[in-house]
Each structure stands twice: as C-alpha cells, then as structure tokens.
C-alpha cells in the first residue's frame, strides 16, 4: 500500500523514523519519503545512510504550522513520531513539552486536513494511559486530539488513528543502553529502582511493522495497542549481567511500578483482536463508521470483560532472563 505513495514522517531522524524509513525502502517503492525534523546534523547524517532518489529532507519544527502545511503538499500518509519524550526534561521544561507534544499534534492535524492527506498515524506511549508525568499527560492530550480530528474532517478524506506501545528495547535514553554502559565500565552492581518493577517490551522493528499494518487496518479514531511481552527489571539485569548484585535505588519521580496500555476505565471501549487491542473513541463520529469490531482488513475483535486492564504487571506473557537475552539480540 506504500508503493508510489508520498509519506511524511515527523521526527523522521529519530530511532523510529530511521527504522520506518529503512523498512519502507526495503519492501516498497514509495514516490517520496519526507523526513521532517529540526536538527540539520541529524538530517545530514541520515542522508549519508538513506540517499535513495525518493528521499526528501525538510528542516522544520512541528510547532510551525505554516512549514508543516507546506511540507505536506501532495502527501498521502503521515506518521507523527516527533516528540519530546524524556520524563525528567518534560517535568523541568513543562511548556516546551506542551508546545511540541500538544501544539505540535494540533498543527499536524491542521496541516493534514489542509492538504487532504489520506491517513495519519500518531505514535503514543504506555505512559499516556492513566498518566502520572507531564510527558504521559501531553501524549494523552495528543491522542485525544488525533481521535477527535476525525470529527473535524468534514468534507476532507483524512483519517486519524493512534498507535500506542511500550518501552522500545535499546531506544535512546532507555534502560538497556544505560545498563550496558555500566557493565562495560566494570560496574559491580546495577541500580534497580524497585525489584517489583515491570515493563512492556517491544523491538523497534516490531513497532514499525505494527504501524505499517495499522495503515491498512485503520478506519480513523482507533487507538491500536499491540499484544507484547513484559519483563521484570530484575530479570533484565540478570539477563544482561548474570549474577551481578542489584542496588535498590528507589522509584524515580514520574515512574510507575507497572505500565498500562489499556486502562480498566476504558474497558467498555476496548476490543480484543488476535494480536492487538483497539480502544474505541469515547465520542461518536457524525460522518464516518463507528463500528470498530471489523477493521479494514476484515479482522474481527470482541469486547473485553468489564474492568479488564492490559498492564505490564498482569500480562500473561513474561520473558525469562534467557528469552530477554535472545529478544534483545534480535533488536540489535
Ligand atoms: N522510544 C520509546 O521507547 C517509545 C515508546 C513508546 C512510544 N514512543 C513514541 O515514539 C515516537 C518516536 O520516538 P523515538 O524513540 O523515535 O524518539 P527519538 O529517537 O527521540 O526521535 C525524536 C524525533 O523527533 C524530532 N523532533 C523532536 N522535537 C521536534 C520538533 N519540535 N519538531 C520536529 N521534530 C522534532 C527529533 O529530531 P530533531 O531533534 O532534529 O527535531 C527526532 O527526529 C515518539 O512520539 C515517542 O513518544 C517511543
């Protein structure tokens, strides 16, 4: 479905954007892939790696609606990946996080509508479900904007959906590179915030493949959540450095013991499919389908039990330390 299409990726120089670009170039023949981000050095470096004739590099900020509107001319699909995503930085610079993650989302929506873009998928995070930090709260607001945008599209064909997933193994600033650095430096123990802590676990490639698939599935208004395994943080430490001591350092501000992807308060809206969940919109769309039980690929989902919560702590699928090792190797 991406052959001969023009695709714009906000935050295209980030971990997700690069893997998405690589996958598109490997399996499809897009007309254009437009990388939209701020830093010229990251774009220059990406250009050395990805210089196919269909590649376009646009310097721009998602806070700049005019520039986004110009960049989306003739675009068929948009993936909105640009975000400020470090929890402590968001707490310390709240308005910067709000401007990028919320105002930026609003600008992406307006630019997509102005250009009659066919489909837009915005990336969300487990931290947006019952958020306790500003990063999560801004991503929840962004999710709400994208879902509601389906009611703004009026005569426009544009459909907006959200993909929400958890910790990407090895992404910038995450626990795997942090532990690896300490191990390489000869640390005798690894810092564990809380031995009860669990996280969802997904590779970048799995995240990319899930987003690609959802372009075919989406009708507009869904929050797509993949079924993925969980890990215990102590098992991760054991997998990366067997036998190493654990130093309990205490939970950090804005952190949860377990992450949630489908909150129990949304259970009346949640549908279970074979390999994913869909959280339906809380609002009704006036000019498009409100039946999310059958998606555009003909896959069918059924309502979950009232009170069901998809939580990294109650997940039926936990990786053992051995499985974490091979999972992490597959992510490299
Ligand atoms: N990594 C994870 O574990 C994870 C998990 C769940 C969801 N997500 C979501 O996935 C998305 C992508 O994450 P990632 O890991 O690829 O992030 P990343 O590696 O930090 O990349 C972020 C990208 O956004 C760009 N960007 C930041 N602010 C911008 C702005 N104001 N205007 C335009 N571009 C901007 C950055 O480039 P410049 O700095 O050059 O602008 C960079 O290209 C995010 O929405 C994140 O919330 C990530």
**Percent strand:** 15-25%
Question: What's the CATH architecture name?
Answer: 3-Layer(aba) Sandwich
Distance between the termini: 27 Å
Regions with little confidence, pLDDT below 50 for 5+ residues: none
Number of domains: 1
Widest beta sheet: strand line-up: 3-2-1-4-5-6-9-14-13-15
Query: Could you say which small molecules are bound to this protein?
Result: NADP nicotinamide-adenine-dinucleotide phosphate
What about the largest sheet? 10 strands, mixed
- Report mean pLDDT, rounded to a whole number: 96
The H/E string reads: EHEHEHEHHEHEHEEHEEHEEEEEEH
Query: Radius of gyration, rounded?
Result: 20 Å
CATH superfamily: NAD(P)-binding Rossmann-like Domain
Shape from CA axes?
globular
The computed structural class is alpha/beta
CATH topology grouping? Rossmann fold
Let me know the number of strands: 16
List the total number of helices. 10
CATH class wording:
Alpha Beta
């Amino acid at each position: 479905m991406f052959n001969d299409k023009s695709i714009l990726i906000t935050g295209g120089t980030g971990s997700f954007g690069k893997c998405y670009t690589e996958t598109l170039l490997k399996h499809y023949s897009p007309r254009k892939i437009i990388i939209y981000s701020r830093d010229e050095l990251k774009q220059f470096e990406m250009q050395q790696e990805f210089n196919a004739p269909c590649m376009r590099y646009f310097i721009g900020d998602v806070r700049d609606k005019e520039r986004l509107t110009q960049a989306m001319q003739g675009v068929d699909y948009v993936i909105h990946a640009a975000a400020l995503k470090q929890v402590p930085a968001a707490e310390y610079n709240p308005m910067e996080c709000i401007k990028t993650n919320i105002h930026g989302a609003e600008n992406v929506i307006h630019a997509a509508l102005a250009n009659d873009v066919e489909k837009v998928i915005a990336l969300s995070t487990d931290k947006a479900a019952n958020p306790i930090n500003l990063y999560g709260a801004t991503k929840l607001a962004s999710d709400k904007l994208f879902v509601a945008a389906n009611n703004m599209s009026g005569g426009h064909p544009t459909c907006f959906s959200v993909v929400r997933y958890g910790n990407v193994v090895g992404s910038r600033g995450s626990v795997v590179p942090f532990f690896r650095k300490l191990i390489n430096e000869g640390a005798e123990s690894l810092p564990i915030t809380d031995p009860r802590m669990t996280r969802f676990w997904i590779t970048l490639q799995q995240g990319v493949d899930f987003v690609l698939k959802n372009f075919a599935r989406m009708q507009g208004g869904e929050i797509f959540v993949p079924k993925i395994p969980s890990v215990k943080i102590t098992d991760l430490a054991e997998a990366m450095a067997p036998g190493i001591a654990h130093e309990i350092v205490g939970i950090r501000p804005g952190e949860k013991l377990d992450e949630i992807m489908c909150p129990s308060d949304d259970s009346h809206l949640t549908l279970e499919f074979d390999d994913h969940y869909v959280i339906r919109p809380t609002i009704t769309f006036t000019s498009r389908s409100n039946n999310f039980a059958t998606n555009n690929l003909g896959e069918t989902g059924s309502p979950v039990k009232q009170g069901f919560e998809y939580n990294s702590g109650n997940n039926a699928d936990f990786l053992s330390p051995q499985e974490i090792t091979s999972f992490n190797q597959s992510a490299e």
